[in-house]
C-alpha cells in the first residue's frame, strides 16, 4: 500500500485521523455540525476553568475555548506529535498564551489527579484504541463535579452512539448529566460525582 493509499484509508476508515489531512479539520463548514461557540455553550465554562481538549488535532475549537477562559488554562493533548505542532502554530498565530500542549499515550494521561474542571473530546473517543483506559484516566484527572463532554457526528467513521459512549464512561463512575442534539450527532456531558 502506498503512502497516499494509506492516508486515504485512514481518512475514510476507522482509526486516527491522518495528520496530512489536518487542513480539512479547519474548514469552516464544520460550523454546520458544531461551531466552537456552540461547543463552548455546552461546557459550562467559567473564566478561570482548567480545561483539557483530548484529541485536539490542529486546534479547530481551541482558540475560541481558550478565549472563553482568560483566567484559566487550556491543555491541548493529542497522540500525534504532528497534530500538536499544527495546534501550537495556530495558537501562536492567534496570540493565545493560556495554552499548554501535551503528547499523550494510548492508555494514559500525563496529568495529576483531580486537575481539570472540564475535559472535552470532539469526534475522538471512537479513534482511541483503549477507550476504557482513557475513561479511567479521565475520571482520575477530572475534579469532583467536573464535566467530561463527548461530541459525536453522524457520518464520521469512528462515531459512537450514545449507548456505546455510556458503556465506556458509566462503569468508570461518570453519570450522564445532559445531552444536546439528537440521533448520531450529539454532545453528551457526563459528571464526576
Write down the overall geometry. globular
Order of helices and strands: HHEHEHEEHEHEE
- What is the level 1 CATH name? Alpha Beta
Provide the structure class. alpha/beta
GO biological process, one term: methylation
Domain Methyltransferase: 46-153
Keywords: Methyltransferase, Transferase
Organism: Leptospira harrisiae
Task: Summarize the SSE layout with pairings.
Elements: H1 3-12, H2 36-42, E1 50-54, H3 62-68, E2 73-78, H4 81-93, E3 99-103, E4 116-122, H5 131-141, E5 142-152, H6 162-169, E6 174-182, E7 185-192
Using brief descriptors, characterize the structure shown.
single chain, 193 residues, Rossmann fold, 7 strands, Methyltransferase type 11, transferase, Methyltranfer_dom, methyltransferase activity
Can you walk through the features of this model?
- With 193 residues, this protein is an alpha/beta fold.
- It has one domain (35-192): Vaccinia Virus protein VP39 (Rossmann fold, 3-Layer(aba) Sandwich).
- The chain has helices at residues 3-12, 36-42, 62-68, 81-93, 131-141, 162-169, and strands at 50-54, 73-78, 99-103, 116-122, 142-152, 174-182, 185-192.
- The radius of gyration is 16 Å and the shape is globular.
- Mean pLDDT is 90; it is low at 7-12.
Amino acid at each position: 500500500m502506498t503512502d497516499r493509499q494509506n492516508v486515504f484509508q485512514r481518512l475514510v476508515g476507522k482509526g486516527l485521523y491522518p495528520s496530512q489531512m489536518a487542513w480539512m479539520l479547519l474548514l469552516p463548514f464544520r460550523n454546520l455540525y458544531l461551531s466552537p461557540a456552540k461547543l463552548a455553550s455546552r461546557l459550562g465554562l467559567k473564566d478561570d476553568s482548567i480545561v483539557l481538549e483530548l484529541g485536539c488535532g490542529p486546534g479547530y475549537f481551541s482558540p475560541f475555548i481558550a478565549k472563553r477562559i482568560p483566567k484559566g488554562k487550556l491543555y491541548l493533548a493529542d497522540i500525534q506529535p504532528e497534530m500538536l505542532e499544527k495546534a501550537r502554530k495556530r495558537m501562536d498565530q492567534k496570540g493565545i498564551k493560556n495554552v499548554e500542549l501535551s503528547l499523550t499515550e494510548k492508555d494514559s494521561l500525563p496529568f495529576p489527579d483531580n486537575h481539570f474542571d472540564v475535559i472535552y473530546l470532539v469526534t475522538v473517543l471512537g479513534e482511541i484504541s483503549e477507550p476504557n483506559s482513557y475513561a479511567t484516566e479521565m475520571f482520575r484527572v477530572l475534579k469532583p463535579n467536573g464535566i467530561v463532554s463527548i461530541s459525536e457526528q453522524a457520518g464520521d467513521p469512528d462515531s459512537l452512539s450514545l449507548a456505546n459512549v455510556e458503556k465506556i464512561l458509566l462503569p468508570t463512575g461518570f453519570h450522564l448529566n445532559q445531552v444536546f442534539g439528537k440521533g448520531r450527532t450529539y454532545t453528551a456531558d457526563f459528571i464526576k460525582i
